[in-house]
Design a protein that fits this description.
It holds the Pfam family BPD_transp_1_N. The protein is mostly helical. It has 14 helices and no strands.
């Protein structure tokens, strides 16, 4: 198991290095330089000083070398080019918890309701609960999150006035954004859980448990959910990382100062340092979440054996 984990982490570090390198090259070969736009009205001597300050007077290989020196040795992701005086690390530390709070709430709601609805649909296959859950799943997959957000704002904030429309504050400000974010994942979790629960319900060990007199609730809790939830774990790992980069639309609609909006703005503004810093942050979460998923597989399902060749 230790060797398996070590290999997975080694692959994760290598993948992160490749992703970071490709991003570094791509953002610099795209036409347009933010430094030139910032310094176009300055005298040539001052422009040169700004280029030297940010290292853009050097070749791309030298910039790449300096980038990793700053990250590894100085543990510094640099200063934003668009927001002068604001460090990339400080921006991530300040705004990532906001996106994380929304994302964690959305994932918790989505996973909990998705698993419950999927199991209900499976044990009532062909009856109205099954059709109702599948109808919800089709709606969740078909309707974009920004449409769900707009509908929620209209009814709960504008028409009924029970929740705030936009802004950020206490728990009440997170309810509508979390529901809008969880609607699509909930539908996916329900569909996967239904399909896998149906497969598990036809396994021999379920018949054996029934023959031994185990209650229906015990069979579902001990056998069906535990064996059918593995695909949900697979979806859950990447979902945890994508809450930072994939929620920018919802954050814009509800005027939430999260990290997603900064990521989109930095790409549009060619803010190299902000793009690189957030790429490292989000890619690290995404890649290492896959490692955690692999480890959880062996914990959740003892039938999965870890070999030396894994």
């Amino acid at each position: 198991m230790i060797q398996f984990i070590a290999k997975r982490f080694a692959y994760a570090v290598l993948t992160l290095l490749i992703v970071t390198t490709l991003t570094f090259i791509l953002v610099r070969v795209i036409p347009g330089n933010p430094i030139e736009r910032m310094t176009e009205e300055l005298p040539q001597e001052q422009r040169q000083q700004v280029f030297e300050q940010y290292g853009f007077d050097q070749s791309i290989p030298m910039q790449y070398k300096q980038f990793w020196k700053d990250v590894i040795v100085d543990q510094d992701l640099g200063e934003s080019l668009s927001y002068r005086g604001r460090g990339v690390t400080d921006t991530i530390i300040s705004y990532a918890p906001i996106s994380a709070r929304l994302g964690v709430q959305a994932i918790f709601i989505g996973v909990t309701l998705g698993v419950i609805l999927g199991v209900i649909a499976a044990i009532n296959r062909g009856n109205w609960p099954d059709y109702f859950v599948m109808f919800i799943a089709i709606l969740g997959i078909s309707i974009p999150s920004f449409v769900v957000a707009s509908v929620l704002q209209y009814f709960f904030a504008i028409r009924w006035g029970v929740l705030p429309t936009t802004g950020w504050g206490g728990f009440e400000y997170t309810i509508l954004p979390s529901i809008a974010l969880c609607f699509h994942p909930l539908a996916r979790y329900a569909r996967y859980m239904r399909a896998n629960s149906l497969d598990v319900l036809h396994q021999d060990y379920i018949l054996t448990a029934q023959a031994k007199g185990a209650s229906r609730f015990r069979i579902i809790r001990k056998h069906v959910i535990r064996n059918a939830i593995l695909p949900i774990v697979t979806l859950l790992g990447p979902q945890l990382a994508m809450i930072f980069g994939g929620s920018f639309v919802i954050e814009r609609i509800f005027s939430i100062p999260g990290l997603g909006a900064y990521f989109v703005t930095s790409v549009i503004d060619r803010d190299y340092t902000m793009v690189m810093g957030q790429t490292i942050f989000i890619a690290s979460l995404y890649i290492f979440s896959l490692v955690i998923v692999d480890i959880l597989y062996a914990i959740i399902d003892p039938r999965i054996q870890v070999s030396n060749d894994s």
